[in-house]
Amino acid sequence: MLVGQTIGSPEKGEFQIERELGSGAMGTVYRATLTLKGKKLPVALKVVSLGLLGNESAMARFEREAAILKQLRHPHIVRLFGTGRFRGTPYIAMEYIDGEPLDRALARRGRMGWEEVLGYAKQLCLALRHAHEKGIIHRDLKPSNLMITKDGTLKLADFGIAKDEDVTALTGANSTIGTAAYMSPEQCRGSKVLTAKSDLYSLGVVLYELISGKKPFYADTSMDMFLKHVNDTPVRPSKLVADLPVWVDNLILHLMEKSPDARPLDAATVGQLMTVIEDKVRNQQSAGVDAATARRIDRKLNESAGMTDEDREAARALKGKKKKKKKVEAVPLLQQTWVKAVGLGVVLLGLVGVGVWLSLPKSPDQAFEAVAKAATSDDKLEAVKEFLKEYGGKDHPKVDEARALFKDLRTKKADQQLVNRYGSDNSKFNYRKPTEGENEETMNSIWAAMKAEKEGRLKEAAAAWIAARDAIPDMDPSRYADEDAVRVTAYRWTAERRLADLDAVTRESARLDTVLDKGYSEEALPAFDERVPESRALRAVRLQKVNDPAKASKVWADLAAATSAEPEQRRWHLLALRQKAATTPEKGKEDEAKANRLAVVTKIADTAAAKWAAVKGDEKLLVEWRDVRNACRDLIDLYADESDEAIRTRVDAARLLLTEAAAK
């Protein structure tokens, strides 16, 4: 047992091991505190089992988990902090999640509501999309590997058997790896060709279990379980959960198709399908309310007008009336019409059968293959449009998937068109002028929204996007392939997406404050990484908190520039634009702002030094000691890059003070 021990080094980080969190075949996970350069951070320390030290395959998997996690930086994936060895035993330090795995929550609650499950699943799809784009397949999706924080954030954990498509797999041919109850049919067969769609199957199994409280298959042995995944059809989840929307039911079974080609295109598409399902349920509920509250006078009159001949005959019978029979004259057998028709029918039936066989249309699953094979976004858009022309009116999982994909691709295209038109500066032609089918007032709302976004006035931008959205009616999804109908409707979808981004800005801003409050409280401020937008934003917020808006404005401006061309990072781009507008010094006061920086640094340094002189003799004043250390870290983290000699002197003094305060 390592509890109570300290491992690591002051240079690379020391880990004070506090308690055991759990253990498995590969090793034991501990709760520990990482101390590095005066900072303290709670981590989960995974130490390999001593019995595996001579097992080359197991050691290779352990090392590859660390190598894979180094490639993944995503808010819904557990983060790697470092690796090392203790007395020859390898360990990896990962983000500590203050929450619980979904299997524990499921055991406590029995099953979960589909709305909650889809909320978690959409977060998981974002994590899978990031991993799959890096060529990494998890291969072991299950509730115990899905951590939920206290604020409802999902974190994908345990990449111990993940497959990196860029390197040789560690498993041999025709071997299986993973947890049997959640494995895809191709995993069960030991297939050499394993794709990201294997994770989608496992996602379907996880959704099935969370929503119904039961696994789709049960077996006494792993081999029996493998056979069930390969051969058996699961009971529909809706048979176990009476109020489950049919679209959720279909999506789960769509994910659990035996053939990878029959499953959804990718994790991003699954996330979009879930949003479509939520919209469908909302629309259905709204329609139900309308129907329930409709006035009786508005309902159809003379409903008996739709009676069939059989209905009328039944009515006569109820009244005691009988239908008069006509006298039928005898006709020789060979001259009877039905006998003649039989001979001709046999011949025609053969011809028709051949013709029908030759002209049978492809099934939606077969036709969707063209969409899946399309390489570029433009090709994919054209392929899905052709698919919808043929199958858009059908109720089929692939049709739902195609609609979600079409809406996503068409929205991105419309968004880019608006960006291009707004940014055009051509004196000969005004690209912002409404074209055929566009309403001038609506287009003016769009241009006003984009102008407000660019200037950081996000509340005004939201109001303008709402006006544009509400001015454009939505359309029947069965008409998605009609380009003339879609062209303007796509601007409505763009407005909806932009509004979602603006909502995300509010959430991210509040989350940044929470992260910093917790970081200061636990002395676990995240290390700065300029490659990560969140890290840049945290740095800017810290500068605002120490009252240096001018330097914060520079960081916000850099973040806005770095995220301007990436739609997936638009929430960070918008947040940066808003904060840049709020912190940029007035024209003519730039020198005054720079001079203020020295005053800010001096105040922080002097206050920390004075407080330390007052409290260093009393080790019981833990909060005061912590405040001194946090002030020193602010100076070091935020101003170590300054060239001004006076500022550098105070930063160096902060380093010495931090060492002294941390040594007690």
Major pleated sheet? 6 strands, antiparallel
Arrangement of strands in the largest sheet: 1-2-3-4-6-5
**What is the CATH T-level topology of the largest domain?**
Transferase(Phosphotransferase), domain 1
How many H/I helices? 24
Average the pLDDT over all residues and give the rounded result.
Answer: 81
Radius of gyration: 32 Å
CATH class designation of the largest domain: Mainly Alpha
Which structural class fits the helix and strand makeup? Answer: alpha+beta
Q: Fraction of residues in helices?
A: 55-70%
Report the end-to-end length measured between terminal Cα atoms: 27 Å
> Beta fraction of the residues?
5-15%
Describe the structure.
With 664 residues, this protein is of the alpha+beta class. The chain folds into 4 domains: 6-95, Phosphorylase Kinase, domain 1 (2-Layer Sandwich); 99-284, Transferase(Phosphotransferase) domain 1 (Transferase(Phosphotransferase), domain 1, Orthogonal Bundle), CATH 1.10.510; 365-506, no CATH class; 593-664, no CATH class. Helices cover 56% and strands 9% of the residues. The protein has 24 helices and 11 strands. It has helices at 56-71, 102-109, 114-133, 185-188, 197-212, 222-231, 237-240, 246-255, 267-292, 309-318, 337-359, 364-367, 369-373, 377-391, 397-423, 440-454, 458-471, 483-522, 533-545, 549-563, 570-583, 590-615, 622-639, 645-663; strands at residues 6-9, 13-23, 27-36, 39-48, 80-86, 89-95, 99-101, 136-137, 146-149, 154-156, 163-164. Strands 1-2-3-4-6-5 form a 6-stranded antiparallel beta sheet. A 3-stranded antiparallel beta sheet has the order 7-9-10. Strands 8-11 form a two-stranded antiparallel ribbon. Helix 5 (197-212) packs across helix 8 (246-255), helix 18 crosses helix 21 (570-583) and helix 19 (533-545) packs antiparallel against helix 20 (549-563). The longest helix is centred in the C-terminal third of the chain and has 40 residues, at 483-522. It is flat, with a radius of gyration of 32 Å. The protein starts with 5 loop residues before the first strand and ends with a helix.
